[in-house]
User: Which sequence fits this backbone?
């Protein structure tokens, strides 16, 4: 494949951050008339179909084993196993494009199709059928076809007007790197063991990220673990720079929390040093090539929240500018920022990547949660209405919520049909089908770009997430799939599932045709109108047509009648979806009376335009202030007089700079949440707003000024309900908001009301913590902790104090078992049984650890610790969650060993008893 020049945008992006919050397009507004129309990107027109190539259609059985000799644990193919390649490929997908197109698909989103490590024996074993264990970023995995097959697929899709999106990874590669200290080890925090230069000097990588400069590293001295490559795998990865072990974090396995969420290995997968400019440039180069050589139309980006901000601030412009200069003006990227919840805090977190980091969009996980809450868990419609009102978190200078892809389920969490059964096991099959339809109606009729997970249109349900939600569309031989229920059909995945007459296929295709015929339902502004326990109503308005579409959804098992406010008084509304009269009339007050069937949706569209405004309404700003859920975001609210369709543009001026657009909102309440993370504490910021009415009149507010508030420091300690074990170190953790690379945190303690003493200072962002040894303190001693932010130019900020009391240790789990190949030797019915009572450890309150002593015969045994009788929580070598097995070699004649598990460090151990 042809190579392109490395990115040179890293340093430029860093320089921009010094004068303005990082964003690729903070447009300068005209001083005379700052009013703008709200943004709509090209992708707002698209419906996505998300599929796993190995599980869709088998077009060429000749590539099932990828040309790799041996058995399934060498080549990875086993059509009877859910964790192995099942046979789908790119040729199969190309042959089924009629089926995909018939669903109304505008864009196919493929799970990663690059060459993977065929099998990772440590993971089950399991195969790389899913695509997330990449070894060669320049070629298609041979189980799925060739680069030529991809070119044919893209051309065939483009001939039908269908885009092709790649699922890409920048966070990690396959598990190739091991450590001299063990293959899958526990994470070592940066405050415990910092990175070191090749010469041994400690440094914090965050001080260099985004600058284009980085210290020289040495695998022998720079990392807490010493990276090693197995013989024969020294040059396994492509491009060749990926074989340099100093370009990985090398800190051990992640627990998906705190600092290790960005720096740790995912179950051993090699975590790239994305703060290093060589990695940034290399990743931009890799993915530019796929755009140039194959015409890929966009990327879904895996594990976005596990990569540092500076990387995205370079990667986004580096890819987007290249694509646009190579004939892809609508090239589009959206990232996976997975989380639970749909409240303002969830949106503050996910919108950080579109606002501060300048990426175009993120996959709308909060929508998925809100949709499940409303349709499946039957939570209040008022919560859904509040969720939509909070969409302003995504409004900024170059993006908004209308670009976000929305979805109901996926290959990780599971399918919506499964949630319907889990959330209420007593639901009938007919009710589950109707609620599935209702969920898709919500997704297609509300803002955002709908994503259909392959098989959902055939009623696939599955029995869980991950591998249990990855059925094949061709006849499956996997036992766990073959007996799955399918909503709306008597069939199961044991037979081919390309039925274009399936009720869900027809429903989704019909919804796509509906929104294509009515652009307001595709790209129109969304105005929440009313909601109660079972019902939510909102309007969609296309600013060009100025006709109001009223959408009402009902999750009750009975019809609901309600009055919906509109902007059309004494007007006629024509039904475009659902049951009910063909037309309805709004009253003098604009209220439209609507009856919604049980578990149903209706849409009515005004036959006349919204009355034209005679003059722009008055507009004024409320006092700007930091938000409660994100200190780095300033809430700016415009109060607009009048009651019609308006668009409000917000602008900010930093110091003596120019007015710059920070977002345009086209639904009330009119707000933006301005990101000031990169502005120094005390910086003066002025705000103004301009309203644009539906006839082109505009009016500008007065100016409101504020100063950037200092960060906050949130302090927590280990222990429960203010009690800490006197035999274990107390972990004190500080979270700074906004967090910046140049910050440090000084930790202090006060014992029994005494003077404050310094415990230590942590300079290693983004997480700050310290350990405190309280073993010398008497039981019942009260200890206070506080954290002091150290940042140039910021006044003293203190987190805490938090008070704890020392106490005797208590068990943190119900049971702990050592499980492995030695269990049958001590009386268990089978080896590797996490529930065997004979191999349980007992908690010792004198040292706060779990112990058991056993006499063992000679032999070599593998083992680890399982918690609470299952493998859901287990610990191996070094205390790593899901880590490597430990090996115990018992000498000739047998011996007695004491097995121990430390519930704080999570480390298991076995010691010989003399």
Assistant:
């Amino acid at each position: 494949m042809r190579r392109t020049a490395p990115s040179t945008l890293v340093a430029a992006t860093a320089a921009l951050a010094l004068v303005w919050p990082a964003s690729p397009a903070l447009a300068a507004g005209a001083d005379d008339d700052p009013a703008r129309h709200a943004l709509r990107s090209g992708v707002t027109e698209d419906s996505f179909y998300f599929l796993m190539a190995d599980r869709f259609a088998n077009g060429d059985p000749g590539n099932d084993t990828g040309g790799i000799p041996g058995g399934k644990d060498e080549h990875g193919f086993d059509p009877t196993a859910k964790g192995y390649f099942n046979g789908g490929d790119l040729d199969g997908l190309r042959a089924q494009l009629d089926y995909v197109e018939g669903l109304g698909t505008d864009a196919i989103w493929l799970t990663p199709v690059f060459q993977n490590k065929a099998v990772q024996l440590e993971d089950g074993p399991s195969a790389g059928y899913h695509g997330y264990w990449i070894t060669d970023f320049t070629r298609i995995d041979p189980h799925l076809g060739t680069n030529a097959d991809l070119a044919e697929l893209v051309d065939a899709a483009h001939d039908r007007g269908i885009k092709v999106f790649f699922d890409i990874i920048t966070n990690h590669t396959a598990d190739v790197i091991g450590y001299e200290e063990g293959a899958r080890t526990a994470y070592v925090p940066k405050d415990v063991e910092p990175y070191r230069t090749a010469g041994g000097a400690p440094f914090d990588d965050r001080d260099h990220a985004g600058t284009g400069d980085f210290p020289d590293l040495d695998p022998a001295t720079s990392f807490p673990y010493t990276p090693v490559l197995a013989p024969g795998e020294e040059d396994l990865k492509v491009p060749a720079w990926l074989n340099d072990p100093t370009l990985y974090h090398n800190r051990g396995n992640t627990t998906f929390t705190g600092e290790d969420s960005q720096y740790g290995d995912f179950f051993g997968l090699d975590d790239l040093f994305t703060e290093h400019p060589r990695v940034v440039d290399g990743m931009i180069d890799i993915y530019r090539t796929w755009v140039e050589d194959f015409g890929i139309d966009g990327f879904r980006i895996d594990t976005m929240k596990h990569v540092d901000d500076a990387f995205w601030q370079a990667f986004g412009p580096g890819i987007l500018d290249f694509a646009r200069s190579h004939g892809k003006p609508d090239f589009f990227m959206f990232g996976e920022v997975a989380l639970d919840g749909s409240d303002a805090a969830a949106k503050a977190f996910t919108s950080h990547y579109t606002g501060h980091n300048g990426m175009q969009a993120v996959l709308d996980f909060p929508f998925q949660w809100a949709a499940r809450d409303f349709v499946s868990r039957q939570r209040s419609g008022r919560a859904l209405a509040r969720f939509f009102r909070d969409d302003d978190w995504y409004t900024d200078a170059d993006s908004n919520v209308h670009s976000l892809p929305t979805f109901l389920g996926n290959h990780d969490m599971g399918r919506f049909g499964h949630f319907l059964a889990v959330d209420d096991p007593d639901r009938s099959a007919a009710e589950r089908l109707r609620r599935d339809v209702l969920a898709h109606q919500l997704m297609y009729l509300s803002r955002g770009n709908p994503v259909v997970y392959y098989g959902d249109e055939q009623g696939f349900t599955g029995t869980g997430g991950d591998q249990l939600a990855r059925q094949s569309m061709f006849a499956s031989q996997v036992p766990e799939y073959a007996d799955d229920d399918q909503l709306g059909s008597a069939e199961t995945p044991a037979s081919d599932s390309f039925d274009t007459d399936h009720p869900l296929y027809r429903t989704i295709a019909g919804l796509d045709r509906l929104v294509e015929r009515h652009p307001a339902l595709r790209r129109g502004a969304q105005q929440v109108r009313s909601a109660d326990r079972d019902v939510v109503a909102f309007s969609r308005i296309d600013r060009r047509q100025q006709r109001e579409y009223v959408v009402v959804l009902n999750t009750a098992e009975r019809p609901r009648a309600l009055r919906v406010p509109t902007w059309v008084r004494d007007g006629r509304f024509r039904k475009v979806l659902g049951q009910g009269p063909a037309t309805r009339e709004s009253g003098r007050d604009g209220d439209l009376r609507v009856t919604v069937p049980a578990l149903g949706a209706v849409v009515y569209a005004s036959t006349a335009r919204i009355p034209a405004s005679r003059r722009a309404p008055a507009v004024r700003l409320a006092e700007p202030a930091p938000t409660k859920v994100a200190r780095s975001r300033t809430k700016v609210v415009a109060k607009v007089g009048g009651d019609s369709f308006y668009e409000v543009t917000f602008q900010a001026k930093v110091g003596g700079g120019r007015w710059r657009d920070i977002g345009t909102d086209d639904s009330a309440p009119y707000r933006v949440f301005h990101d000031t993370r990169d502005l120094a504490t005390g910086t003066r910021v002025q705000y103004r707003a301009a309203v644009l009415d539906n006839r082109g009149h505009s009016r500008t507010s007065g100016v409101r000024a504020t100063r950037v508030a200092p960060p906050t420091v949130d302090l927590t300690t280990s222990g429960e309900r203010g009690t800490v074990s006197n035999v274990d170190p107390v972990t004190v953790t500080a979270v700074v908001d906004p967090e910046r690379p140049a910050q440090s945190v000084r930790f202090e303690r006060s014992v029994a009301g005494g003077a404050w003493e310094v415990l230590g200072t942590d300079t290693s962002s983004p997480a700050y913590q310290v350990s405190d040894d309280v073993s010398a303190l008497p039981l019942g001693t009260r200890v206070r902790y506080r954290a002091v932010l150290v940042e140039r130019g910021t006044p003293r900020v203190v987190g805490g104090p938090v008070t704890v009391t020392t106490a005797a240790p208590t068990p943190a789990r119900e049971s702990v078992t050592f499980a492995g190949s030695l269990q049958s030797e001590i009386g268990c019915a089978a080896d590797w049984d996490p529930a065997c009572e004979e191999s349980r450890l007992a908690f010792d309150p004198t040292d706060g650890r779990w112990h058991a002593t056993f006499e063992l015969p000679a032999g070599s045994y593998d083992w680890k610790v399982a918690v609470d009788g299952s493998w859901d929580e287990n610990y191996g070598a070094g205390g790593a969650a899901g880590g490597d097995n430990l090996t115990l070699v018992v000498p000739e004649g047998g011996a007695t060993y004491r097995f121990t598990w430390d519930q704080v460090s999570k480390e298991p151990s076995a010691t010989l008893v003399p």
Q: What stands out?
A: The first strand starts at residue 48 and ends at 51.
